[in-house]
Amino acid sequence: MAPPTTVLLPTTTQSSAIEEIATQLTPSDELLVICDRETDSVADYGDEFRNVRVVVAGEPTGCSGKANAIATGMEEATHDRLVWTDDDFHHPPNWLAALHEAYDRKGPVSELYFFVGSDPLSILLEPIYAIGGTLGTYATDKAWGGAVMFERDDLDWESFLRDLRRTVSDDGLLSEYLDTTSLKRVHPVEIGGTIRQTIERHVRFTQIVRQHNPWDTVVVGFVTSLLALFCLFVPLYAGIGTTLLATGVYAYFGVRRWTVLLAYPAIILQVPLMVYALTRRTFVWGGRRYRWHSKFDVEIVT
C-alpha cells in the first residue's frame, strides 16, 4: 500500500483537475490547491472532498508566482511523499496509483508533456517542442512539474525551498536537486491562445534553459543553426529529413498529430525566435512581468 501522500496543485481557478485528482486520493492523502490571492475563484472552493484544502500563497517576492505557490505548498504539506501537478491536462483515474507504482520501483519519477498548440504560432512550433522538449526531457531524465513524485529525503529540503523562493522555474530547479527517472507516459498539454502569449512562453522556455543549463543553450543554438542552414540550402532533402525526424519522435511517444508536417518551417523559424528570446529583457507569465537577471536574481516588474 502506498504511503500517505500530499499532492500540490497550483491553480487560481476551479478546474476539473481538482475533482480528477481528489477522487484518486485515499483517506490519508491530501490535495493542496494553492492559489495566489483570496480573491482567486478557487479560494472559495467548497468542501465536497474532505481531504482537499485550499492554501493562499500570497504575492511572490523575488520569485515567480508558480515557484512561490510550490514553496508554500511544500511548507504546508503534511506527508513525506509529494506529488507536483498542474491543472492544464487530464488526470486519468489511475494516474496517482501509477505514479506510486513507478516510484516504488524506480525512486523519484516524472511523466512527460506534449504541447498542443491553439494559435498559429504555437501550432507551428509543436515539432520543436516535441523534439527539444518532450524527447529532450525524456532523454535527460529531467523533472516536469506537471507530474512528478518524490519524498522529502530525496533532496536537500531546506536548501531547495530557500532557492525556490528566489528563482523562476520550479521544475528547472527541481532537476538540479533531484535525480528522477522519466516515464514514457505523455500528457497532451494545450498551450498558446494568442501569438503574443506563445511568444512570451517561448521566451520563458528559452531563458529557463539559459539560466539552468547555459551550455545546453550553446549546443542547441549551434545544432539548430546548422539544421536551419541545411533547410535553406538543401530544402528537398532537409524537408524530407526533418519531417522523418519529427515523425519518429511523434511515433515514439504515441502521438498522432498532423503538425509533424511542420517540422521543416519550424526549424527555420526557431533560429530567429531563439535569438529574440535570448535578447529579451523581460517576459510575462501568469499576468506578471519578470526580469530574470540570473538564476537567483528575479525582479517582478508588474
CATH topology of one domain: Spore Coat Polysaccharide Biosynthesis Protein SpsA, Chain A
Termini separation: 46 Å
Helices and strands, in order, run as EHEEHEHEHHEHHEHHHHEEE
Average per-residue pLDDT, rounded, comes to: 96
The CATH homology group name of one domain:
Spore Coat Polysaccharide Biosynthesis Protein SpsA, Chain A
Shape: globular
Q: Which ranges are low-confidence, i.e. pLDDT below 50, for 5 or more consecutive residues? A: none
Largest sheet: 7 strands, mixed
Q: Write down the Rg.
A: 19 Å
Compact overview of the structure:
With 302 residues, the protein is of the alpha/beta class. The protein has helices spanning 16-22, 65-76, 95-106, 120-124, 126-140, 157-164, 170-177, 195-212, 214-233, 235-252, 263-279, and strands at residues 5-10, 30-35, 52-56, 81-85, 109-117, 147-151, 181-191, 283-285, 288-294, 297-300. Helix 8 (195-212) packs across helix 9.
